[in-house]
Design brief:
3 domains, alpha+beta, 3-stranded mixed sheet, 9 helices, Rossmann fold
Length: 284
Amino acid sequence: MDRWTAEGALERIERYRVTSSHMVPTMFNRLLQLPDEVRERHDVSSLRSMVHAAAPCPIETKRRMIEWWGDSIWEYYAATEGGGTSVSAAEWMDRPGTVGKAWPGCAVIVVDEDGNDLPPGESGTVYMKMPGAVFEYKGDEAKTAASRLRDFFTVGDVGYLDAGGYLFLNDRANDMIIVGGVNVYPAEIEGELVQHPAVGDAAVFGVPNPDTGEEIKAVVELLEGWEPGDATTGAILEWLRDRIGRQKLPRSIDYTTEMPRDPNGKLYKRKLRDPYWEGHDRAI
């Protein structure tokens, strides 16, 4: 396809009897937003391995995809620098939200601010290692050194391990919003937003607030048939109130016609966030 579309993907899976491919959560959301009669029209029984990665996948989105595509759904979490985790559909259904266990030969740890290993269930910075994977950031010794802990490295993600060694991610540390001293992770809010029938895509981040330091801003790309305005904003926020804690509710919602994503689905959140911080000394 010259440009990926949800119905176009289903048509090609059926026509070419596709067995394996790679998607990102935004594509899953687009597929699930299709009318039932469109989804049921296409035969996807040829699928054996549909791998997804690159961004957090909302729990409800993934559960619905597994109910539709079954054991073909696989997920991995990894970094170019080396190492990672993976999880099958069956494992994920037993532990909703996990990104899996470390690959064979790899190791994953979660540490506190002082570099001490944390017990299961406590969130901290995620570090990984893969034997033989040695790297440095070109021309940036300071960044290389800051990413290292013993023989492990981090890309700045925050998460926790359960008692079975399965990794759960909260969010990127640099995406975390601090509202009056409370840490808020945008991924959870974004995951709920995209379940609303008006929302095609969503991004959540912190913007300046003189009293609390930051406040929560949502930017939404609406589906066809919905118009931006107070009525739509009110409907979305009212719906969110029953799904997330009060302290996580966005203070406001702005609208865009298209999210700044690369062809692989990666969201350039900075392009949305930076204009709100113009004229301020720094982004918290």
